[in-house]
Design a protein that fits this description.
Elements: E1 2-9, H1 13-25, E2 31-34, E3 51-53, H2 59-77, E4 90-94, H3 96-111, E5 117-120, H4 121-128, H5 138-142, E6 150-154, E7 157-159, H6 162-175, E8 179-181, E9 186-193, E10 209-216, E11 219-228, H7 234-238, E12 247-258, H8 262-268, E13 281-283, E14 290-294, E15 299-303, H9 322-336, E16 347-356, E17 363-367, E18 370-374, H10 380-396, E19 400-402, E20 408-410
Parallel strand pairs: 1-2, 1-11, 2-8, 4-13, 11-18
Antiparallel strand pairs: 3-7, 4-6, 5-6, 9-10, 10-11, 12-15, 12-16, 13-14, 14-15, 17-18, 19-20
Bound molecules: flavin-adenine dinucleotide.
The site of flavin-adenine dinucleotide (FAD) has 42 residues, from helix 1, strand 3, strand 12, strand 16 and helix 10.
Length: 428
């Protein structure tokens, strides 16, 4: 049997950031981070599109995303750990009604000092060799595709190399003396009475009990505190204890197209929108399928986060679906970007969003001695640093966490009992 102060379940980006921040504040703590997989960041973290943006209208989103991005900038620029950050920006296409709906939000953001650049449809058509007006395209009309009326570029946004970010947190946590055990599958959480009486089947409902570690495929791990950062798998560990976490899994898929033709190369390496030397992360108007440039592999990744009737379903190894590309993404993309005509994916992968069904924002809470950090709902990379700091502050019993840059964030705002989340108005 292994004993430690803190057992952290899940070495995804949230578990790693939490482990690192906890160990930074408390070097004396014996922390054991475990994961059922053979290396760090191999769950949903490895499947991410690895895009980030700092422009959000809600106070919650902005605080989490901006401070995390600034920390990643600091890691790269000041600590010299190359995260391959590319400030390529986000390019958002809007149809006319979408644009007018978003205009007051954008104006408000601009009054608050946020920067964005607006492009009209003719500029976009010229710079990107794209079709912006689909009004006379019968098929596009049948599919309900929106025209591109405006494009908004958010410069403080871009791409990050997730493997490098994972390596950074893992290396630094280990350097501080933290321990990691891979291939360790938590089968069940251990619940014990605070004052054991030695009765069979303890604890009984009248006893004061708490979570004191876990049973794993490699034996029992006893811990003063157990922290679950198991991403989309969180409910599998909490449901048997009757703890509601509001996290559900939904498959998300990415298809990679090699930029083999001159037209696709031109699109991928367009220099018109930023100094990053590639296309921004580009989001179509309706439906909001996206193109994620992957210049380091001469590719463009295509994806769409579909909702109804996509099931909530936990899968260990979700598979990308050929038809999702063939009859879904391809048909939409090619209407705007004829450059993709006849393109087949060179590779594809799928992962799970860990969706918080309450409000789509991360959760950091404690119940019966068990802490939970996760539910980032598809934005875990871009908010990971802040979430790790907030989880470490909850462990400390602090009312406020100090985010990178010094901003205070009320810990209970991400909790369940006194949750305080400002709804996001700048929705993709
Ligand atoms: C296709 C796709 C695109 C995405 N794009 C972006 C993006 O552009 N930007 C962004 O910010 N986010 C994006 N995301 C979301 C982002 O990847 C996640 O929010 C983030 O990785 C979640 O991190 P996590 O640590 O909570 O979960 P995970 O990375 O899944 O980590 C959880 C870990 O827990 C382990 N685990 C689970 N159960 C157990 C158990 N019983 N015992 C031991 N270990 C266990 C798993 O093996 C896993 O390693 C995307 C996700 C997908 C799928």
């Amino acid at each position: 049997m292994v004993e430690c102060d803190v057992l952290l379940v899940g070495a995804g980006i949230i578990g790693l950031s939490t482990a690192y921040h906890l160990k930074s504040v408390h070097p004396e703590l014996e922390i054991l981070l475990v994961d059922k997989l053979g290396a760090a960041g191999q769950g949903s973290t490895a499947k991410s599109a690895a895009a980030f943006r700092c422009l959000f209208a809600s106070r919650t989103n902005f605080a989490l995303a901006d401070s995390s991005a600034e920390f990643y900038r600091h890691v790269q620029d000041d600590l010299g750990f190359d995260l391959k950050l590319r400030w390529a920006g986000y390019l958002w296409f809007f149809d006319e009604s979408g644009y007018h709906k978003m205009l007051p939000v954008l104006k408000d953001l601009s009054n608050r000092g946020f920067k964005y650049v607006e492009y009209d449809e003719s500029e976009l058509a010229r710079k990107l060799d794209m079709r912006t007006d689909l009004a006379n395209d019968e098929e596009a009309q049948m599919m309900g595709l929106g025209n591109v009326y405006k494009g908004i570029v958010i410069p403080k946004a871009g791409l990050i190399d997730v493997d490098s970010l994972v390596k950074f947190y893992e290396t630094e946590y280990l350097r501080l003396g933290g321990k990691i055990q891979y291939n360790t599958d938590v089968k069940e959480l251990l619940v014990e009475p605070r004052s054991p009486l030695g009765m069979p089947g303890e604890p009984y409902f009248w006893q004061d009990a708490s979570v004191r570690g876990a049973k794993t495929n490699r034996g029992v791990i006893k811990a003063e505190k157990t922290v679950i950062a198991a991403g989309a798998w969180t409910a599998q560990l909490l449901d048997p204890l009757g703890i509601e976490c509001f996290v559900k899994a939904k498959k998300r898929q990415i298809f990679s197209i090699k930029a083999k033709t001159e037209a696709l190369k031109k699109l991928l390496f367009t220099k018109d929108f930023s100094a990053a030397g590639c296309l921004p992360f580009t989001i179509l108007p309706k439906p909001s399928a996206y193109i994620r440039p992957a210049p380091e592999e001469d590719a463009l990744w295509l994806a769409y986060a579909d909702e109804f009737p996509r099931a909530f379903k936990i899968e260990d190894d979700p598979e990308p679906e050929e038809n999702f590309y063939q009859y879904g993404l391809y048909q939409v993309l090619v209407k705007y970007f004829p450059q993709f005509t006849d393109c087949q994916p060179f590779s594809a992968f799928a992962g799970l969003y860990e969706i918080n069904t309450l409000d789509g924002q991360p959760l950091v809470f404690e119940e019966n001695g068990l802490m939970v950090a996760g539910g980032a709902s598809g934005s875990g990379i871009l908010k990971a640093d802040a979430i790790g700091r907030i989880a470490a502050a909850l462990y400390e019993g602090e009312e406020y966490a100090s985010l990178y840059g010094g901003k205070a964030f009320k810990v209970s705002d991400l909790g369940l009992k006194n949750r305080n989340i400002e709804p996001e108005k700048l929705v993709i």
